[in-house]
Each structure stands twice: as structure tokens, then as C-alpha cells.
Write a structure and sequence with these properties.
This protein starts with a helix and ends in an 8-residue tail after the last helix. It folds into two domains: 280 residues, Rossmann fold; 252 residues, 3-Layer(aba) Sandwich (Rossmann fold), CATH 3.40.50.880. Helix 8 packs parallel to helix 9 and helix 15 packs across helix 16. The strands form four sheets. It has a nine-stranded mixed β-sheet with strand order 11-10-12-13-21-20-19-16-17, sandwiched between helices. Strands 5-2-6-1-7-8-9 form a seven-stranded parallel β-sheet, with helices on both faces. The protein has a three-stranded mixed β-sheet with strand order 14-15-18, with helices on one face. Helices cover 38% and strands 20% of the residues. It is an alpha/beta fold and 575 residues long. The longest helix is centred in the N-terminal third of the chain and has 20 residues. It contains 19 helices and 21 strands. The structure holds glutamine. The site of glutamine has 10 residues, from strand 17. Glutamine (GLN) binds next to strand 17.
């Protein structure tokens, strides 16, 4: 009896193997191809912009592309990250609080991202530890290889399958050598092996140094970084070199020889005036053609001439925009424009569509007072008060809004900017003493902005705000209705506070028009001053910038820029 048991154990242990099934049911190798993009030398090179630009070129060739990002940090999502440290939190329609690169993907490709396009270290471990507790790995020690890498590959393949993609672009966040992204790198090496070399194209984005004290470009850091990736089994097929100026032939030769990559696939990505000019830069290096041949995709190409023409028209407009306007943006993260990436882009999209170049002026409101306000705001054509949390700079923002309201300066308030506009109005028009938001002063006498009832019960901070896409019911006959041209709009939210319903009637009786609200709920979502009273004074509880696209600018941003331009006495027409 004992002998039989021992034999049984011996035979099961013989069957044990190191493979972990990371193929979703029905998956077919070769149907979807992959482009893996990683970074060397340093982070912040614009891997997201590069990945999206390359994907755009594939899309213009009629290929069905999808794109995703790995982020190594242990946060489950980006919701609790400080935008000052990490760039803006980009909110997806499904409510995922994601990395700003997903915003870049949406803008370039015009497709909505979901939670399936974004994977953090925290999310993968959360998932694996939950499975372990359920007993899914019974009897096994749960390991980085094969379990963590296996789950990562499964995530990537699931995206490929669910989106029926010809090509999935995978951006690995961080830099080669980071401890927190090495299991993603390992997973990509395995993916390449399992899918076959002909189905995976590896792109290294690197940095060519050009120190001012030398006045010449240096390639060693790039070479070493790529060599490190090669040691991890990720030999690049394409090397994209970020640099301030065009990378010289000599430097490209050095990198080419050191990494075994033909020189025509070592390309220069030097600084451009707009990120939307990067696809053209890649096109001039024939990057799309080269990658398509590497992946054997030529037979699937069906050039999308309509989309190519539309994109070209947009790029031409960027190159030919002449008239300049200056938009002031207030906020405490003013030293880092990444914190407001979507707003910067939404302004660019709207301005470009009118052939206007919008320059931005960052205004740190924590330093503003009654005396300095005139000096600051007389230098801008319009002002945006963006989203924000907490109290820092709030009084300065309120001063800006008062100035904009009283001086016919076009004003666009976004979420916090909507809330502060109501505080300002309550204080200075309704004369309600000690009006505030309870986020800033919980004991204020007139809490015109108060926490949403459903938020009162919530303890945790991660993924608990009112998040993601919700409908906005637009009131006919209003400025907002004129700009939207529809009765219902879908917009993205990220907030805990709202206009306190007790004050709605008082606001309405004294001139504020709530031109957008939540259907079936008493949540005010757009406020405006009638057009006859102010050229543009609109605030939204949502963030229109999240859905603005280069070829489809947001209606309220269009209205804002148009109003500014009309004040500048140049009439332009919204298409
Ligand atoms: N702090 C405010 C709220 O939670 C505004 C949020 C925002 O601007 N996104 O309601």
C-alpha cells in the first residue's frame, strides 16, 4: 500500500513541469502581432508618445491596433498618485484611474481605453495573491516565473483577443534596470519566444546625451542601456534615439554596430514643436514600412485614405497656425505641465482647429492677492481653473474667478474650477457670508459645495470617488446646448464634492444657469452665465479634457477659444 502511494507521488512529480498556461482559451498564435517598447538610459523620454505615434501609422494603414501600458509601481492604479510626482491621473470611461500615457493613446488613436489596457505591478500582485488565497495554485509555490510572468502574458493576449487586434503595442513603463519593471521585461522576453520572432517587434527607446559643455552628441549611455536589455533577452529590432537635435549619422552608426541593428532602423526622434508631428517624423524614417515588413503584415494593409487626409489636414493646421492667444492656467502643480497634460492638449486641439496657437501662462495662485491679480490676469486672453484637491491656492483661484467674471475675461472652470466659481458667486453676488466648500472648511456657515451623499460612508481613498463616464443632461436654449448641439453628452468625472442641492434655487434666482445636470439625480454638472452677460463663463463638474481628441476637439474648449478669438475681433466659425 505504502509502495503504491510512493509510486503515485513519484509519477505525479514526474508530470510536473515549469510551464504555466498563459494562453487564453481559443488563442491562436500569429493572429495578433506585438510591438514591445521599452526605455533605456532614463525615464521621461516620451515612450507613450512614441508608442502612440507608431501605432497611429499602423492605424492609418488600415490595421486594427490596440495598445497597453505596464507600470511597475505597486499601486493598484494611479488614483492615489500625486500628479506633481507622476503626471496627471487620466480617467477612463470605465472609471479606471490610469497613467497619463493612456490619455496619449486615446488622443492619437481615437479609441477608448479600458482597464484592460493598463497593468500595474500592484494590480498583478493583487490578482495573484487573491488567487493564491482561493487555492488556485494549490500545492505550488507561487513564483515570479512562471506565475507572475504568465499572468502578464495572459493579460496581453487577452487584450489581443478581445480587441481582435492585428497588432498590440505594449509600452513597458520605467527604464531597463528598474527593479520594479524587470518581471514585465522577463514576461516580454518569454512572449517573444512563445509567439515567435516573426510575430514580435522589439523597440528600444533610448537617449543620446548632448551636454552643453561638450557641444556634441554622445552615444555611450544609449549603448550600455541597450546592452543591458539585450542581456535580458530583448534584442531590439528598432532603436529610437531621443535627443534635443537630430541624431548624427556617426552616433547612429555607433549604436547600430553595438546593438546589431541595421542603421536604417536606428532613427532620430528629436524635439518637435508638437507631439502630433512625431508620426510624420517616423514616417520620414520609413519606420512604419520597416516594422510592417518585420512583422509580415504587408498582406493585411488597407490604406485608410480618408483618415490619412483628415490627419494631414490637422498636421498642416499645426504647422500653419499663426494667430497667438495666451491662456492662463491656475493651479498648484504649475511647475509640472504633465500634471495638466489633458488640458494642455484639449486647448491645443481646439485652438488648432481655428488655426490659432495657444500659449499657456501658468499662474501659481498660492502667491496671488488683490494687488497682484490685475497684473497677472491683464496678460492673458482667457483663464482656466482646473481640477484640484485640498485648500492650497483656493483663495487665489477664487480671486481669479472674480476678476474673470467682473472683467468679461473668458473663463473655463473644470471640476474644482466649477466648485470655486460657485463659492465666488455665493460670496460676492449672493452675499452669503463665509461661503465655502466643506472640502476646505468643514465648519463654514454656507457650505455651497458639499460632499456627495454617497461619499460620506466611504473610508478608503483608492478608486472611491465618483469616477468615469456619466451622462450629462443639457438644458435646451443655453450656451452649453448651443455648443454641444445635443441634449445628452457623455463626460468623465472624478470628484467627491458637488454643488450643495440646498443652494441650487438661490443660485438660479440670482443669475447662474445650471445648463447641465445628471439625469435622474440632483447633481449639477454645468454652470454658466448667460451669453448676453458674459462672453464665456462656464464651469463643469466633469473634465471635458479627457475626451478631447485632435480631430474632435471638445465643444466647450472650442467655445472658449472661439469666444477669446471673437473678443480679439477676428470672427471664426465652429464647423
Ligand atoms: N476636490 C474636488 C472634489 O473632490 C474637485 C476634484 C477635481 O477637481 N477633480 O470634488
Amino acid at each position: 500500500m505504502e509502495e503504491i502511494l510512493i509510486n503515485e507521488i513519484a509519477s505525479t512529480s514526474k508530470q510536473e513541469h515549469e510551464f504555466y498556461d498563459s494562453m487564453p482559451a481559443g488563442y491562436r498564435t500569429g493572429k495578433s502581432k506585438y510591438v514591445i517598447i521599452y526605455g533605456t538610459v532614463m525615464s521621461g523620454l516620451g515612450k507613450g508618445i512614441f508608442a502612440a505615434s507608431m501605432a497611429k501609422l499602423f492605424q492609418l494603414k488600415g490595421l486594427n491596433v490596440n495598445i497597453m501600458k505596464f507600470d511597475g509601481y505597486l499601486n493598484v492604479d494611479a488614483g492615489t498618485l500625486n500628479p506633481y510626482r507622476h503626471g496627471e491621473v487620466f480617467v477612463l470611461d470605465d472609471g479606471t484611474e490610469s497613467d497619463m500615457d493612456l490619455g496619449t493613446y486615446e488622443r492619437f488613436l481615437g479609441i477608448n481605453m479600458t482597464k484592460n489596457n493598463y497593468l500595474t505591478g500592484g494590480k498583478i500582485f493583487h490578482q495573484i495573491l487573491n488567487s493564491e488565497r482561493k487555492g488556485d495554485f494549490l500545492g505550488k509555490d507561487v513564483q515570479f516565473i512562471p506565475h507572475v510572468t504568465g499572468e502578464i502574458k495572459k493579460f496581453v493576449r487577452n487584450l489581443a483577443m478581445s480587441s481582435n487586434a492585428d497588432v498590440v503595442f505594449v509600452e513597458v513603463g520605467g527604464t531597463i534596470g528598474d527593479i520594479e519593471n524587470n518581471y514585465f521585461i522577463k514576461a516580454m522576453q518569454e512572449l517573444q519566444y512563445e509567439e515567435g520572432k516573426e510575430n514580435v517587434c522589439i523597440v528600444a527607446l533610448t537617449y543620446v546625451l548632448e551636454p552643453a559643455f561638450l557641444g556634441e552628441q554622445k552615444s555611450k549611455a544609449a549603448q550600455l542601456g541597450i546592452r543591458m536589455a539585450m542581456a535580458e533577452g530583448l534584442n531590439p529590432d528598432i532603436i529610437a534615439c531621443r535627443c534635443q537635435n537630430k541624431v548624427t549619422e556617426k552616433v547612429r552608426e555607433k549604436i547600430s554596430i553595438s546593438a546589431n541593428v541595421p542603421i536604417q532602423r536606428v532613427i532620430s526622434i528629436h524635439d518637435c514643436e508638437s507631439i502630433y508631428l512625431i508620426p510624420d517624423l517616423l514616417l520620414s524614417e520609413k519606420l512604419d514600412e520597416q516594422a510592417i515588413d518585420l512583422l509580415g503584415l504587408r498582406s493585411r494593409i488597407k490604406e485608410d485614405y480618408h483618415a490619412i487626409t483628415k490627419w494631414k489636414e490637422f498636421v498642416d493646421k499645426i504647422n500653419n497656425s499663426e494667430k497667438e492667444i495666451i491662456i492662463g492656467i491656475t493651479g498648484k502643480y504649475t511647475s509640472l505641465r504633465d500634471s495638466y497634460a489633458s488640458i494642455v492638449k484639449a486647448v491645443e486641439h481646439a485652438a488648432t482647429s481655428f488655426g490659432i496657437k495657444a500659449k499657456l501662462r501658468w499662474i501659481d495662485t498660492s502667491e496671488l492677492d488683490e494687488n497682484s491679480i490685475e497684473n497677472e490676469l491683464s496678460r492673458v486672453h482667457g483663464i482656466i481653473v482646473p481640477g484640484g484637491f485640498g485648500s492650497r491656492g483656493s483663495e487665489g483661484k477664487i480671486l481669479c474667478i472674480k476678476y474673470a467674471r467682473e472683467n468679461n475675461l473668458p473663463y473655463l472652470g473644470l471640476c474644482y474650477g466649477f466648485q470655486m466659481a460657485l463659492v465666488e458667486y455665493a460670496r460676492n453676488v449672493l452675499n452669503l457670508e463665509d461661503s465655502y466648500s466643506t472640502e476646505i472648511k468643514s465648519s463654514c456657515k454656507n457650505p455651497v459645495i458639499d460632499i456627495l451623499p454617497e461619499q460620506k460612508r466611504i473610508q478608503n481613498l483608492g478608486a472611491t470617488m465618483r469616477l468615469g463616464g456619466h451622462d450629462v443632461e443639457i438644458k435646451p436654449g443655453t450656451y452649453a446646448a448651443e455648443l454641444y448641439g445635443t441634449d445628452i453628452a457623455r463626460e468623465r468625472f472624478r470628484h467627491r464634492w458637488e454643488c450643495n442641492p440646498i443652494y441650487i434655487e438661490m443660485f438660479e434666482q440670482s443669475g447662474i444657469v445650471f445648463s447641465g445636470k445628471a439625469p435622474n439625480q440632483n447633481i449639477m454638472q454645468i454652470l454658466e452665465l448667460p451669453k448676453r452677460e458674459h462672453p464665456f463663463f462656464i464651469g463643469t463638474q466633469y473634465h471635458g479634457e479627457y475626451i478631447s481628441r485632435p480631430l474632435k476637439p471638445h465643444p466647450l474648449y472650442l467655445g472658449f477659444i472661439k469666444a477669446i478669438s471673437e473678443l480679439e475681433e477676428k470672427k471664426i466659425i465652429i464647423e
